[in-house]
User: Fold these one by one.
Assistant:
Number 1:
Amino acid sequence: MTPTRVDVFRIPTRISFGRGVALTVATPLQQVGAKRVLVVTDKGVRDAGLVQPIEERLREGGFTYEVYDEVVPDPGVGEVQRCYERAREMRADAFVAVGGGSAIDTAKMAATLLANGGTVLDYVGIDKVPKPAAPVVAVPTTAGTGAEITINSVIADPEQHKKLVIISPNATALFALEDPEMTRTCPPFITAITGMDTLVHAIESFVCKNAYPMTQVLALEAIRDAGQALGAAVKDGADMEARERMMRAVVSASLAFSNTRLGNVHAMALPLGGWCHVAHGTAVAVLLPHVMDFNRTAAPEAYATVGEALGTKKDAQAAVKRVFQLNNEVGIKPKLSEYGVTEDAIPSMSKDAIQSGNILVNPRETKLEDIEALYRAAL
Ligand SMILES: NC(=O)c1ccc[n+]([C@@H]2O[C@H](COP(=O)([O-])OP(=O)(O)OC[C@H]3O[C@@H](n4cnc5c(N)ncnc54)[C@H](O)[C@@H]3O)[C@@H](O)[C@H]2O)c1
Ligand SMILES: [Fe+2]
């Protein structure tokens, strides 16, 4: 018999979770026999004091290491190249990424180039990376993109005004050390937008056409955790209960969406980064309630369940309303125009968005004019 549908669950990354787990960084490096390590981070994360304890553990473990702290937010093809060249110069055999999605994606792709040669442009798309990347131990400091777990990397191509997506089980971090303590210093606005990114991953995965019971259990748990803990984590960064719940949400949401894909919010967020330089978390947060409102008639039961998980009524419209409120509570402005987006960018962004594979799994069928209308509604 030919199966009509096959649900595959696959996570190549080994995930360790717990307060203080970042300090075990030497263990996975020893497991893969690493000797020469490039620590990939950015200046904000380094200034927050998050790299120094990692360096201590590397020294204690007898590793030769260097710190590359030149990662920029929303890194581009050129920045990955620079990081890769630094790794090659020091003859690195492994990477430790300490930071948000920007540092982690930079390290994942530099490690991919170290093992495969070429440039990022050779690997754009699905399953284009022939050999496994050099080992990456990812220590996220935001909660978060899930870049430490997912098989996706997002790299900007400023020439084409695009954010390129590389999707391959060979271009992932081998280990993720999920340590809520590492997010303690994350500033309120970064906490808000990266937390909303997690919530969007969970909601889009839960309602999308590829969802199935196992991914839905995970996504729903992530919606509950993020929906209930985000406000507290933004209000008081030292609230470790809230920080821990947010990081749990990242793990559950990432396990889910890695196996389902996402939806219109992510299809539309990448062009906002490419054309208008809106940070990923900001883009997804502003778009989410508009896309939910567009989708809810196609999946009313699923959106009603989302509403309940967010702590409001079991009702699709109430879910939309709750997300508008949540954005307001955590300090995200409701309009894209407040983040520098102008109407003249809508045609180009819409043409890019409609080509995303995420449109195909969105619960409501979506055409070019729908995407344009959604950008206008959020403008
Ligand atoms: N690979 C994926 O699956 C995936 C998914 C979504 C987004 N992304 C990409 O991830 C990038 C965004 O990552 P991000 O949102 O995590 O932000 P980021 O890595 O760009 O970091 C944002 C800022 O926060 C600061 N920061 C981070 N953690 C901190 C901490 N604990 N204390 C103090 N400062 C801290 C950094 O210094 C930086 O200035 C984008 O390039 C986006 O496209 C990737
Ligand atoms: Fe995202």
Number 2:
Amino acid sequence: MIRMETILITGAGTGLGKALALTYSKKGFSILLSGRNEHPLKTVEQEIEQLGGHAAAVVCDITNSHSIAAMLNALQEKNITIDRLINNAGVGYFGELESLSEADINTILDTNVKGTILLTRALLPLFKKQQSGRILNIISTAGLRGKVNESVYVASKFAVRGFSESLQKELEHTPIDVTAVYMGGMDTPFWENSDHVKDKSRFKTPETVAEKILSEDDGRPEIFVDK
Ligand SMILES: NC(=O)c1ccc[n+]([C@@H]2O[C@H](COP(=O)([O-])OP(=O)(O)OC[C@H]3O[C@@H](n4cnc5c(N)ncnc54)[C@H](OP(=O)(O)O)[C@@H]3O)[C@@H](O)[C@H]2O)c1
């Protein structure tokens, strides 16, 4: 019997993470749904299981290395291996730079940059031991060019771009791949509590973007841009 590949997706209770979870599940992957709030993760878990797929909710705050270690230990105790990681969790606060509080700045950088780095650092020894692994870093077109009233968010996504490109070089002679994914706006809860985007309904749906990511995934590109 062929073992199902397991993907750990961060921020999988909402938006693109949820869409990726459902899309990869339909393709036959087992999904570990990660995020800070258990309720939305459990709802996605039920949705996937009702469709005949396999999923499990695992609560984790990626900004906290203890929370990451606790999640990975709990999975190890259940003999659950991880074949792929999708670093999708991210936050954004927008407006003129001086309107952002230090707390806002910390949250953006801690989640988008430090969280991505900490979780990747925690999983790399497992991937190296099993001599396989695949990492998708969900960035944004904000990782490709500067934008008005998005300075800190853009800075965080440029950082993840640099992190991804450097890891690609660092892992060049290993069986571990890293893909940097750059997409434009999506109609997700990301824009709730913000008037930075006037009409998010003009954006692509996360389901459309998730399908495109999956369709590119087999080619294991270093970069995937979906504007
Ligand atoms: N929406 C867009 O227009 C757009 C465009 C390009 C790129 N992106 C990127 O796409 C990714 C997904 O965003 P989205 O649009 O789907 O927004 P979203 O629905 O707000 O999803 C973000 C997810 O991240 C999780 N999260 C936040 N902080 C976390 C933490 N400390 N630890 C673990 N999980 C955390 C949230 O769950 P909890 O709150 O439960 O933890 C939430 O499920 C982000 O990286 C975003 O930057 C979005």
Number 3:
Amino acid sequence: MNIQWYPGHMTKALRQIKEDIRLIDMVIELADARIPDSSRNPEIKNLTNGKIHILLLNKADLAEDAVTTKWIEYYKSQGIFSLALDSRSKAKKREIAALIDKASAEKRARDLRRGIKNRPVRALIAGIPNVGKSTLINNLAGKNSAKTGNKPGVTKGKQWIHVNKTLDLLDSPGILWPKFDDESTGEALALFGAISDDVFEKQELALILYHRMTELYPGRLNDFYGIDENLDDAMVLPAIAESRRLLAAGGALDLNRAANIFLDDLRSGRLGKVSFEKPD
Ligand SMILES: Nc1nc2c(ncn2[C@@H]2O[C@H](COP(=O)(O)OP(=O)(O)O)[C@@H](O)[C@H]2O)c(=O)[nH]1
Ligand SMILES: [Mg+2]
């Protein structure tokens, strides 16, 4: 399915980020551990030019650990500072701090040579909508400094957050890019909630999900919904609706709700840990 979403507020946000980038030492890029390729915005890669760059694979609690480990090894082999995390977890705070420290060691040494002492690292948190940017900031800053929400597009305007003496963070609105390279990128982003649900046909996306799940994780849908895994397309949503007893007014099966619930079960991890993209 061809999905594109690049609303005006993203063009504006990108322009703002390009302006702010002059004030910044480090770009902390967040990607989704379930789809590390599709969830990396090529525009952000451009922004990291000449800046310290850290790549965090977030929502790792919802991805297969072994695959995430391979991704992190891959990034490290590319010389990228990276770490897998659940941005809600307090346990990872120290590891993130250590990574930021390591990544900024050269900068601190350079500052010192110029006689600058104790200047905090200024880092921009960037990534696609809904990837966990604000959650990470709240976790690091230890209070509700950034608004979070399970909908793309909650963060608006510029927010500097003072974490401690050594670190200042700048939250940024989630941004996508004008044209996705191929259909599977838009589909992956839509599947995991980075794209407004209004711009694609949910039932069609649910069918794509059925095919992805039965191919990558045979048996899971049968376990979870008790449905067959060789269904004709027309029978997939009716089977899920039946399994969950989803009836619309008049007693017909509610296929829209079936699609919604199916996608929600994926996004929230109820279908189990999933890694839809692997490093090759
Ligand atoms: N399971 C899980 N959920 C997360 C994680 N990080 C964020 N979330 C949830 O994802 C949703 C979007 O988070 P938010 O920080 O608002 O994303 P933002 O749009 O990038 O700022 C919220 O419902 C968060 O609770 C994570 O690492 N694991
Ligand atoms: Mg946000």
Number 4:
Amino acid sequence: MVEADASWRDESLGARVRVALWLRDEVGEGGVFSKASMREAIKGTEQVDRRMRDLRPAGWAILTYRDKPSLQPDQLYLEKIGLPVWRAEHRAAGLRQISAKTRRYVYERDGHMCRRCGISAAEQYADEPGTHARLTLGHVNPHISGGGANAEDLITECARCNETVKHLTGVQMTKEQVWDRMKELPVQGKRQLLAWVKTDFRPLSPAEKVWGMYRQLPAAVREGLEDDLEALMRS
Ligand SMILES: [Zn+2]
């Protein structure tokens, strides 16, 4: 059993537990730290990002400069220490599995499309030819603690968006860059974007929904549908 006085230096402990202990002892609630300093402390833990993310569903709140503008891009802020995962009874906290039924439901509800960029299963990224999207489930709000395993907490994402969204400091664009692109949109585009921003939701059009279903079919089965649709439109 791992007791409350366990140390992050104890290499026999799991990486998630060591990360939690390091945050508790070396950072503390309200403390600022860098991912590099954590990686330096807990050597051999390649995926400190992943371990930190794993703490979120256990009630830990770790904010990036996107959530907290006073931070530098390489800084993180430990807002809240969640469940003491170093205790045996909390070891598995937040690591709840998503049931197969929930998984199916969420994919179906989201039209088998990434809700962040709109790509469908196995579709090629326009800006990355040769790379095909793989769908996965992410949390609606990955930066807030307590992401659950219920359908309403989950969202269909492609693996690329999933990584971008969850990644603590790997931000590709600045606010100014996004704002420049926003300003360039035609009025109709601005209006549409504003509606999505307000609801934090981009609804799929009927054609997009069917596109998502179509992309779910094996390629060999898909083939005939092109001819069928063309024939239908000619008739
Ligand atoms: Zn995506």
